[in-house]
């Protein structure tokens, strides 16, 4: 059956960009049939097959979609018109088996949308995204099919189903209802139009933000003050890649944040900062205001048609929180402490700036720079000093060590033996260390490049399942946007980057550890899915990881204990800034989507909402609305950005379980975490699974303690 996750795809300066004016999208006639069939075929290769990246050609997506969607709709019609009495096997399990060619195609298509979204792919996406939505609606609105699903649902207590089958029936029925299956035909027709319009707008929004991210601020030799050598080398490499003289700060977070942290040129900091925070908000063809206005209104209209008070109520009906107010309440529970901490941080920075005779008032483009100065003054801790110990390849190896010691996994690089979609992509075979048996494959795509979306994310190319007695194992990818160094030079990353690497790897471990029967139960609610990834960030600063992998990139020496002590002492430093910039985005997301009218003026909404909660003037939202891809490139995190904090409550509380056990490597706790949290997908209610792991519900006090905030 078509997985809904496919549609989530699922974001006067010296700033320039260039995109070719046109691109060829027609299908090569001679190779068309054979090439299309190759794109849709069962994956071949070792261990159940791997993605055929060597066969992907953008012009093939449209004819492949035509063929695969027709095949899936025929399969669904056969299930709907089956004259036999509806049963779990001939209805729910049959649906689980349907649409596999379209699912394979969707995987290839959406990976390209995020990783290689060139003008040719953008042109195809504009046509296909609404059609993906149309096909999904044809399944959801099939009246005969829904009647059969409802019949199995109504008989779920008396038909001899096991617990996992019953869970699948209940989740499937609820998803059908949530998608409009029980609505009359005229409402379904209207819903279909809204969904297709939204799909087109999501694509448009994402392309506009990507275009603004494919820009840069150029630097000359006199603009490098304060920048460490490794960062300068990265900016030089970025300029060379774009055939530019000098240096280039590309308009992505991984390049911008370190510039704002270290550059002593205040005017240039402001220039780089404004280029970054104005993505999607400039007076040019990439302005996203109208897209946002339409998306929010269409979402509200859809929720009303489906009988929900707001888009937030609709989106959260399948989450742990359930009620938008519960999500907002958590955000506001943390807000006062975070805001108060920001006031303290700003006062410290202003005092330092005054003592240096800077004669400035701290502004947003000053925050990271003076934050770093305060850190150094207070803890004698210079990021440039410890960054020398966080070399990318070592941190990747450290993450594999963590997985091996906690869960018994081994990672062997096999790059070159399997096809990839770009030369930068590396491939690892994942096995059980104890007996060498196959677990899955991990693809790594770690570096920024043109036409790749910014940020970091995990993708599941193929989920694990045991449908019909088969054993299909997971294929996953980790995607980052680190800045490449000069040829032959190591890539040094920050502590935040290292945590991000472990975070995305946590998502991969979640998928690799899954052990469920049905594909539809491999995913989890949005406000649970970040929990396994966030908890794995904690291992970065464990003594074993630091002693073994935090080695000086030149000398190979271990990180000195004195430096480790400084890191530990500063662990909650700057939590006001990090928490407030996140909360600003999460609160704005929730508030605009709790409004039943859906009427929004994108030019003023952000300012109004932040004014109401008292957003400190020295900080902007981590994701301003004009570039907020989490919530406007798909429905994925809409009314759901709160979930990072919701999940972090569980992550902090789960980490406390390891601490209470006496070791971050406690074998019994790790086994419980793997077996109960990672392996069960959504086959068990997530709140109940957490209680099974921890013996109680999570406690927010653990999160407040981790961030150094008062717990009373």
Automatic annotation (TrEMBL):
Names of the cofactor(s): Zn(2+)
Cofactor note (record): Binds 1 zinc ion.
Domain Peptidase M3A/M3B catalytic span(s) in chain numbering: 260-708
Transmembrane segments: none
A GO MF label: metalloendopeptidase activity
Pfam family, one: Peptidase_M3
Coiled coil: none
Signal sequence annotation: 1-23
GO terms of biological process kind: proteolysis
Gene3D superfamilies per record: Collagenase (Catalytic Domain), Endopeptidase. Chain P, domain 1, Neurolysin, domain 3
Cellular compartments per GO CC: cytosol
Family: Belongs to the peptidase M3 family.
Name of protein: Peptidyl-dipeptidase Dcp
